[in-house]
Amino acid sequence: MTLPVLALLASRRPSDELMPLLTALTAHCLPVVPDAGQPPPRAAVLTDSRLPPPDVPFAVWTPGPDELAGATESAAVVLTRDEQVLAEVGSRGLWVPLTRRSPAARPVSPFVRGRLRLARGLAPQAVVDEAGGALRWPGRAEPLTGDVLETALGCASAAVLLGPDVVLAALAWGTPVVTDPATAGQLGLRDGVHVLVHEMPGARRTLAGELARDDARAAALGWAGRRFVEQRHDVDTAAATLAGRLGLVPRDPVAALPQTLLAELGTPPGARIRTRLADAVAPLTSSGSSS
C-alpha cells in the first residue's frame, strides 16, 4: 500500500515542538519537502503562515496568537501549543503534543488500586508524594523510579506531583493528581476537572489525603485526566486526528488493510485469511453500510 504524500511547506526549519507530530504522521502518510519528481501531495503542512496555501487541504503551525494571520484563516487545521490560539480557532484547532503516551499505562479504578495496594503491603490510602525532589511513598525512604514508579502510579490512591512529564505519566494511569498552578497552566489542566491545584505544598498534601478517602471523586478525576491525556497529550492520537482531517486516511477501510504484507509473506490471493480480513471490515465500507 502506497502512503499518500504530505507536503511540508516551510520558509524555515519546522519548530522542534512540531517534529514529534511529523514523525508520528509517518504511520499515515509520507511527509516530504515538495519536489518535481514526486507524486502530487494529498495534503500539506505549512510552518509559516506567510506562504501561499496549496490547492489541497492543509494545516498551519501557529506557535502563538501574534502569528494568527494569512494562511491560518483558510487552513483546515491550525496546529498550536498556545491555549489562546486554541480558544480563538475553535474546532479547527489541534493541540500538538510532545510525547507518546506510555503503552503500558492503563487506567485503574480506585477499587482495583485498593486491591493492588493490599497485595503489595501498602497502606489502605497510599499517596505518592514528590518531596525533596524525589517521588516516594509516605514513610519510605526509597525513591520511586523507572518501572517501580510506573507500578506506584498504577496503584496509588492519589499523587502530589510537580512538572509536566510526571503529571502526564500519572494521568495516563488514571491516577488522581494534585499539582501546582504552574504545571496545570503549562498542560492546560483545569482545577477540579482534570486535577486539583494549590500553590502551597502543605495544602496539596491535604487535598491528596482527602482524595485518597473519596473513591467517587478520585475516580472522576482519574478518568477525566486520562481522557485529557488521550485527547491533548498523546502524539499518536494527534497524528491520527490530523491525518483524518486532512483526508490522508483511506475512505475505504479495506484499502488500509495490510494486503501488501500478506503478499510479501507469500499468502496466495485466494487464501482464507484474505477473505476473512475483507469480510471483517465489509460492514464498515461504503458499499457494506448501504446494503
| CATH architecture title of the largest domain | 3-Layer(aba) Sandwich
DSSP strand content: 5-15%
Q: Report strand order across the widest sheet.
A: 2-1-3-4-5-6
Query: What is the 3D shape?
Result: globular
**What is the total domain count?**
3
Quaternary structure type:
single chain
| Average pLDDT rating | 81
N-to-C SSE string, H for helix and E for strand: EHEEEEHEHEEHEHEHEHHHHHH
Helix-strand category: alpha/beta
Number of strands: 11
By CATH reckoning, the class of the largest domain would read: Alpha Beta
Compact summary:
By secondary structure, this protein is an alpha/beta fold. It is 38% helix and 13% strand. The protein has twelve helices and eleven strands.
Which helices and strands, and how do they pair?
Layout: E1 5-9, H1 19-25, E2 30-32, E3 43-46, E4 58-61, E5 77-80, H2 83-89, E6 93-95, H3 110-119, E7 127-131, E8 134-136, H4 146-155, E9 158-160, H5 164-172, E10 177-179, H6 181-187, E11 196-197, H7 201-212, H8 215-232, H9 235-245, H10 259-264, H11 272-281, H12 286-290
